[in-house]
């Protein structure tokens, strides 16, 4: 019974009928609290770039509400819902098999916004990060048209304008055609301290609002419980588990 009640509270909170008092917004999540519709925001990147720090230090007000879904033993999706926004946090890349790539792509496809994090202090992975991002958004079932893409260059020297400009030019040295019809922005940030995050997320909030107005006649994102939503995105079917491998 408690599980049913918890799921019902999640759904009611997501559509604005119920306020979850033990899960108040943070300064960043409050930017999205007055959006009229429900949204899914995917936070993704290669391993070790600052995703967990962003989630746990700047988005979450109550850590007990983070749900983790594990697939294939090494594919983890952390999920956190606050008001009418659900954040999905996921590692990609690392030479995973095709089954992992298909599963990861589903989360990109079902996102209303994507935050991609780049470790700007480890340029050895710059090309791999760019290629992995392009792989996800260029896929025919990947990021949908008009969905905003926020790229965070996480660096201890994020205020070094010359360095950030150089990094931006390097990352977009050959701007892929898959980005030509996307709304995207590049921000230098320090995720550990939070510097630069509010400006970046204000851009994301405004871009989501613009997308909503542009697609006002389209069907709204269906609100499910956190668990049901994850299963829906993964496309899990007991009779078709072979599709995952």
Automatic annotation (TrEMBL):
It holds the Pfam family Arf. Mg(2+) binds at residue 52. Keywords: GTP-binding, Magnesium, Metal-binding, Nucleotide-binding. It comes from the Eukaryota. One of its GO terms (cellular component) is Golgi apparatus. GTP binds at residue 94. The keyword Nucleotide-binding applies. One of its GO terms (molecular function) is GTP binding. GO terms for biological process: Golgi to plasma membrane protein transport; intracellular protein transport; protein localization to Golgi apparatus. This is ADP-ribosylation factor.
């Amino acid at each position: 019974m408690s599980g049913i009640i918890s799921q019902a509270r999640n759904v009611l909170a997501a559509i604005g009928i119920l306020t979850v008092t033990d899960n108040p917004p943070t300064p960043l999540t409050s930017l999205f609290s007055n959006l009229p519709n429900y949204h899914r925001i995917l936070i993704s990147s290669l391993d070790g770039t600052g995703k967990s720090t962003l989630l746990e230090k700047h988005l979450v007000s109550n850590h007990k509400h983070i749900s983790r879904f594990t697939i294939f033993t090494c594919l983890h999706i952390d999920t956190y819902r606050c008001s009418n926004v659900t954040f999905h946090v996921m590692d990609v890349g690392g030479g995973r098999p095709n089954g992992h790539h298909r599963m990861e792509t589903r989360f990109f496809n079902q996102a209303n916004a994507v935050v991609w994090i780049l470790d700007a202090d480890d340029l050895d992975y710059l090309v791999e990060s760019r290629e992995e991002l392009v792989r996800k958004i260029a896929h025919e079932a990947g990021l949908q048209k008009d969905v905003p893409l926020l790229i965070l260059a996480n660096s201890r020297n994020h205020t070094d304008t010359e360095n950030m400009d150089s990094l931006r030019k390097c990352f977009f040295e050959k701007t892929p055609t898959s980005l030509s019809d996307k709304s995207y922005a590049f921000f230098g940030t320090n995720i550990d301290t939070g510097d630069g995050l509010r400006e970046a997320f204000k851009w994301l909030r405004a871009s989501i609002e613009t997308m909503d107005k542009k697609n006002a006649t389209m069907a709204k994102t269906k609100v499910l419980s956190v668990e049901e939503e994850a299963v829906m995105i993964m496309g899990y079917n007991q009779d078709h588990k072979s599709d995952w491998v």
